Structure formats: C-alpha cells, structure tokens
C-alpha cells in the first residue's frame, strides 16, 4: 500500500512531468518538419479513409487569469471575421491535397472560445469544413463552450451544422475562487447554457473542472462537484490547475501564496473523485470521469480508448488534421504544428502555403514507446507483447524497456507474462512511470506538476 509518505518519496509531490497527450511531447518538435511533409502526409491518406479534424479559434472576449491556453483578447468581431476567412483558405489548401472520399469521424473546435464566432461565421466555417470532407455517418462534432459567451442564435447555427457534443468550461463554482482566478461565472448562467444546448438536442455534455486552484478547500471543491453533477453531464475532465506564469503571463495575477500544496492538491483530487464515483461516474485514466453508458467509458472498458491532444478520446482514426493557428495534427508518419502566432499563420495561408511551423517525424522507437505510454495512461497496463506485435518488433525489445524501472520506482508496477501493470495505489504516479519510457531530454520548465 502506497502511503502519502511513500508517494512523496517516489516523487509525486515534486516532479514536473508531461501530461503525455503526445509522444514525443510538443517541446521536442523542430522546424525540420514543414509544409512539404504535411502535403505528402495528406496525399498519403487512403481514399475513402476516415480522419479527425481539430480547428483552433485563438480568440476570447474575456481573458481569464488562470488560463494557460493560447488565445488573445478581442472586443470586436472584425479580427475574428478575418481569421475565419483564413481558416477557409487553409481548408481549401488541405482539400486540394486530400484524396477522394475522405470523411470526418471526429470534428472538434477548440480555443480560445469558438462560440465567439457570429452565427453566420459558424455556418460559413462549418460549410467550408464539410466542403473539404463531409462528416461520416455517426460522426462526433464537439465544440468548447464558455457559458458566458453563447446565445440562442449561435447555438442554432452550431446545431444546424451538426454539433452533437459540447464541452463546457466550469473550473470552479465558488465565487471567491472565481474572483481570484479572474473568471466570474454563476451557476445560473452555466445552467442556462446547458438548458439551451439540451433544447437543441445537444445532449452529450462534457464539463471541465479544475483542482489545485487558489483558496480551494475540500468543502469548496465538494460544493462545485455537486453542482456539476446536478447539471447532468456525461463526462468530466478534472484537470490539475497548471500554474506556469513563465508561459502564461496572465497567471502572474494569481496569488501564489493561496495555491494549495502538492499534498493538498492530491487530497482535492481524491475528494472530487470520490464524489464523482458515488455519483455514478466511472473513473477514466488519470483525470476523467464518465457515465457508464458514455462512449468514452465504453471505449475504456473495451481497451480501445486513446489519448491525443484533447486528452482521452474514443477517436480511433490515425489522422488528426490541424486547422488554425497553433493547431497540432497527427499523421501515421509524425506530428505537425501550425504557426503559433495568429499573424504569421495568416500571412502564410494568404501566401497559399500550408502554415506548418514545426513537428516531428516518428522513428520506430518513438512509436513503440509512445504506444506503451499511451496504454499506461489509458489503462494503467501495457501488454508489451501485443504492442511489440502491433509495431512489428520482437517482444524482447519492448520487454527490455522495463529493465531498471523497479529500481527507480520500487513497488509501483508488476511485470507478468509481458504485461506491465501499474498497481492500483500507485496510479497517481502514472505520469512519472510513463516518463520512464520517454527517451527524450525533459525541458527544465514547461511541464505541469505530477499531481
Ligand atoms: C482551451 S480552454 C477553452 C474553454 C472555454 N474557452 C471556456 O472558457 O470555457 C479548455 C480548458 O482548458 C483548461 N485549462 C485552461 N487553463 C488551464 C490551466 N492553467 N491548468 C489546467 N487546465 C487549464 C480549462 O479547464 C478549460 O476549460
Ligand atoms: S478559459 Fe476560455 S475564455 Fe477564459 S481565457 Fe481561457 S480560453 Fe479564453
């Protein structure tokens, strides 16, 4: 049994480790990958194949102090309209390279705040996406929603475009915490957004909640969790607040002295977890919860869940096409990221180029290690023989990667018949254990706390 003391000794409360939404992680991307690679990778998609598409909208009407996302403030629709025009041009550039008959299985609009788009812009953008490739039957179309930045006409436009899942940002309902993190948002306004979505038949709801916020206590997070449960979501992302003021300047407004200690963060997560589990949610991986009938819970039980830049997903397609400034895509051959700065992104698209800034071409070793890490974070176990067979390498190669793990992180895993399992009470260490399989140098800063 791992006690808090043992978890501390094993590094849980000190380590800064990647969240491993990709392997290699984004800090390893280099400018060696450019538009030529992505042009070839798009052309290599089998005709009639299924792809996923991620569209990034880097604008917000309000700039919440806690937020580490790449976004910029705007009070007017003008820059947003110009940006949508650029997105349409980028979609046409991608379409020119896509083989016949490709369909979209998963479409996600993230940000920033995609619901900042005017209703006509929403319809226009959706039309350009479906012109590039239509939605496959049964496809999932999800959008990140700030409940304070949405209304009937915009939801009508999204529903007409085929939206069937909404991801709603809550973070915490406590008014004092909201004030300190610069994100006022009443329960009532959140409830209203949920009701408006349901009235339009958009019943699949995901809620984002944070633990580790300033002044958060077990009583406060319990109250927020109960309020979230009362909204009837089918999926929850319970992320640890990442305090990275050197990357996100706004976070300098957050009072560091009011942040909970790593040990307190661990207790906050445990408190919220127990409430979600008592409320009928299944715990999924390191930071998600889902109702048993939800697609993610089903994929989790079937061992078919994946991890990508959006976190856990049922998405099985091997291609994620990046659209918009800073968007990251994944192809069987490697990762590619668009220009992070909106101005540079627009400049390149307007010049008729795919706006790829950097990326990474997979080696066989990357694919093997990446799959082990993905399986450990999805299922807390990795069948090394099966993974080796999938990657067409000898099982001994994968099994040898475990050598030395027991010496570094004793008593946290078992290896039996080629199956590496993270013991239940060591699951909080999953990212630290995953790091053991990471062959790249860690950057000194940039990663979030292990708990
Ligand atoms: C890209 S944001 C978009 C959400 C949408 N604009 C809203 O305000 O509801 C998606 C999620 O990222 C998470 N997030 C943002 N900053 C974070 C941080 N510093 N640490 C952990 N999660 C963070 C939040 O939970 C947020 O809901
Ligand atoms: S939380 Fe959402 S609304 Fe707030 S700054 Fe981040 S992306 Fe924008």
What would you say this structure looks like, in words?
With 451 residues, this protein is an alpha/beta fold. The chain has 16 helices and 21 strands. It has helices spanning 4-9, 35-43, 78-95, 119-132, 152-161, 175-180, 187-199, 218-230, 262-278, 295-302, 342-350, 364-379, 384-390, 395-400, 405-408, 430-435; strands at residues 16-17, 50-57, 59-60, 72-73, 103-111, 135-145, 165-171, 204-211, 235-240, 282-284, 288-290, 306-308, 311-313, 320-323, 328-331, 334-338, 356-361, 381-383, 413-416, 419-422, 448-449. The chain has a nine-stranded mixed β-sheet, sandwiched between helices. A three-stranded antiparallel β-sheet has the order 15-16-17, covered by helices on one side. The protein has a three-stranded antiparallel β-sheet with strand order 18-20-19. Helix 3 (78-95) packs parallel to helix 4, helix 3 (78-95) crosses helix 11 (342-350) and helix 4 packs parallel to helix 5. The mean pLDDT is 95. The structure holds S-adenosylmethionine and iron/sulfur cluster. S-adenosylmethionine is lined by residues 66-69, 110-111, 113, 144, 146, 169, 171, 208, 210, 239, 241-242. Residues 66-69, 110-111, 113, 144, 146, 169, 171, 208, 210, 239, 241-242 line the site of S-adenosylmethionine (SAM).
